[in-house]
Amino acid sequence: MRLSTVILPIHRWSEGQKTWQRAEELGFHAAYTYDHLSWRTFRDGPWFGALPTLTAAATATERIRLGTLVTSPNFRHPVTLAKELMALDDISGGRITLGIGAGGNGFDATALGQEPWTPKERADRFAEFVPLLDRLLTEDAVTQRGTFYSADEARNIPGCVQRPRLPFAVAATGPRGLKLAARYGQAWVTTGDPKIFEDGTPEQSVAALRGQIEKLGKACADTGREVAGLDKILLTGFTPDRGRPLESVDAFVDFAGRHRELGFTEIVIHWPIPDSDFAADQQVFEQIATEALAQLD
């Protein structure tokens, strides 16, 4: 099992770069950031762009993988995103993972002046966005006409450092999204079942996650792929466990062990942010980063 962190882009780089460098020092497999224009309770405070932040992180680190968790079609287009990702993969020396999802009804959904998309339209757009992005990152020139997204002689030369392209980590729980994960993903991402976040139990959460993985397995089988070949990433903080796994090393080891048994290969924990939903003891957090995985062996 791998252990990664997600660092919210809330600090000016003069301060924020220290966090990314510390994540590498602590031995995290990857450091991700959210790709939003603003997000939840952080909306009225500092919030910086994901791709420039990752570019800066790439120049400030040497080994740790970097990525979005996740970007979405809400305010991006495959043609421009592909060009930026190709450059970012080059700058990082091939250390980028693209977490990508269908988006939601948060602030990003209307920031460009559009009406929020229905769940069906989000699914329709995602089903077009991911295959086109795949082509743009693997072919020198792409022309494609779609209902929502098109490309006309779009060039991406020389392509990604990682071949045939940088990996996709597809966030999905519905049948259409899981099909995309099975076909295009090198990893699958989930935050659990939002329906039981408020009133559910950790046991119910484990059962829900088991069900999601079973559905992922069926989607993989339908595409002729072994589900074991797909990394499975759990972004924590959105299950009924909430912040309890970060209360101690033992608590995290117990949490991680239960989810490793389900088949998860990577767990992502939020870098502590005081006075927020992601508040945690920094010393305990760093002990988890450096000691917890050894206790799972």
Average per-residue pLDDT, rounded, comes to 97
Distance between the termini: 9 Å
Shape: globular
Number of strands: 10
SSE run: EHEHEHEHEEEHEHEHEH
Low-confidence stretches: none
Looking across the biggest beta sheet, what order are the strands in?
1-2-3-4-7-8-9-10
Largest sheet: 8 strands, parallel, barrel
Going by helix content, strand content and strand pairing, the class is: alpha/beta
Query: Total helix count?
Result: 8
Q: How much helix, percentage-wise, in residues?
A: 40-55%
> Any idea what the radius of gyration is?
18 Å
| Strand percentage | 15-25%
Describe the structure.
There is one protein chain. By secondary structure, this protein is α/β, with parallel strands linked by helices. The protein has eight helices and ten strands. The chain has helices at 13-25, 50-60, 78-92, 119-138, 175-184, 202-222, 249-262, 282-296, and strands spanning 2-6, 30-33, 65-71, 96-100, 141-144, 151-155, 168-171, 187-190, 231-235, 266-270. It has an eight-stranded parallel β-barrel, surrounded by four helices. The protein has a two-stranded antiparallel sheet with strand order 5-6. Strand 9 (231-235), helix 7 and strand 10 (266-270) form a beta-alpha-beta unit. Helix 1 (13-25) packs across helix 2, helix 2 (50-60) packs parallel to helix 3 (78-92) and helix 5 crosses helix 6. The termini are close together.
